Amino acid sequence: LSVHIQVRIHRILSNTHRQASRVALSFDFPFYGHNLRQVIVATGGFIFMGEITHLMLTATQYVAPLMANFDPSFSQNSTVRYMDNGKLFVVQWDKVRLKNREDEGAFTFQAALHSNGSIVFNYRDIPVPVEKMNSTEHPVKVGLSDAFMALIPTSQLSDAKRRTIYEYHRVEIDTTKIVSGSAFEFTPLPTCLQHTSCDLCLTSNLTSGCGWCNTIQRCSNGIDRHRQEWLDYYCPEESKGKCEDYNPPLPEGSMSSFNQSSPAPTPSLAVPEDQTVTRGEGITENTAIIAGVVAALVLLVTLTLLAVYYINTHPTVAPPFYLMQRRTNNYWPSMKFRNQGCPSSYAEVELGVHEKEGFIEAEHCC
């Protein structure tokens, strides 16, 4: 029997350069132990797997069968197409050409994400050796990467924090092995995140270095996308214990006691019987001081909320993303993002009201 699978041609990505578009998955795709339900497909031969989009999509958190400076808008035959059958999501960059090197030939390759977490790169046409591609205008990468985001204090004298991306794992393929007709398969390894109980977390022989945080009911080694929450709930200390002796501390601002049957009494101002209070003095002065402190706190909270709102509603601006760091032998060398005028920056696009995606029947390609 012949099985026909509907393939979508992404009209916007097929007619633009250095653009990316969000695509919803019909299944949970486990990526480094994190279940993803949406990805961002880019014209440059890669899929961005991060939850927060920013200009530097090429930096990390990617699945890249062949990240390069491709321009699908050069020809009507160049397309970015994808397919989702409920268990498999495939993106194919079909007959795409390198920007300003169009006469060197068309590339056709794809990335396939399987519901079990495995990833396959297929290459049908590779007219130019990957090692001869120019990475000056656009990064050239082949492989996988993931990172976590953390809030780092800007200084010891300020409560202000900046969002910092740490790349904790990367897989790179030898580019000399990428030729027409080649393929690569990545099989996911077990992660601490898959354990749903303390006993499994600490005793499973499938993983190592795992710790259980009873407060958030999670197993982790502390190096994953939940890193910030792991730190906020004091999990590094709690995870050193055994399953039977947890008495986890809670973060500041949370309900630290569950045994109080009634609220604590409110402190009151006591006045000795042998003293009198003159109107306009004493209590009035204290009231003015308290009112001033309250006003200052209200102003501080208001400014903080406005700052948080601005960062959350403007994720692509430069300030939240000052640097990216890669972990190597417990040392974190920094590399600042050069967002302004960066040649490899990407813009995310969305389908407009009048934009339609095309459909074709799946071919036996790659």
Radius of gyration: 27 Å
Structural class determined from secondary elements: alpha+beta
Unreliable spans: 253-283, 314-341, 351-366
Strand line-up in the sheet with most strands:
16-15-11-10-5-4-3-2-17
SSE run: EEEEEEEEEEEEHEEHHHEEEE
- DSSP strand (E) fraction? 25-35%
- Roughly what is the average pLDDT, rounded to an integer? 78
Largest sheet: 9 strands, mixed
Helix content estimate: 10-25%
The coarse silhouette is globular
Number-wise, the strands total 18
InterPro entries: Plexin_repeat, PLXDC
Region (Disordered): 254-273
Transmembrane segments: 288-311
Protein name: Plexin domain containing 1
Quick structural overview:
The chain is an alpha+beta fold and 366 residues long. The chain has 4 helices and 18 strands.
Name a few traits of the molecule.
366 residues, alpha+beta, nine-stranded mixed sheet, seven-stranded antiparallel sheet, 4 helices, globular
Provide structural commentary.
With 366 residues, this protein is of the alpha+beta class. It folds into two domains: 6-149 and 162-189 and 324-361, no CATH class; 193-245. The chain has four helices and 18 strands. The protein has a nine-stranded mixed sheet with strand order 16-15-11-10-5-4-3-2-17, with no helix packed on it. It is globular and about 80 Å long. The two termini are 21 Å apart. 27% of the residues are buried. Residues 253-283, 314-341 and 351-366 have low confidence and may be disordered. Keywords: Glycoprotein, Membrane, Signal, Transmembrane, Transmembrane helix. Residues 254-273 are annotated as: Disordered. Residues 254-263 have a biased composition (Polar residues). It is found in: Membrane. The chain crosses the membrane at residues 288-311.
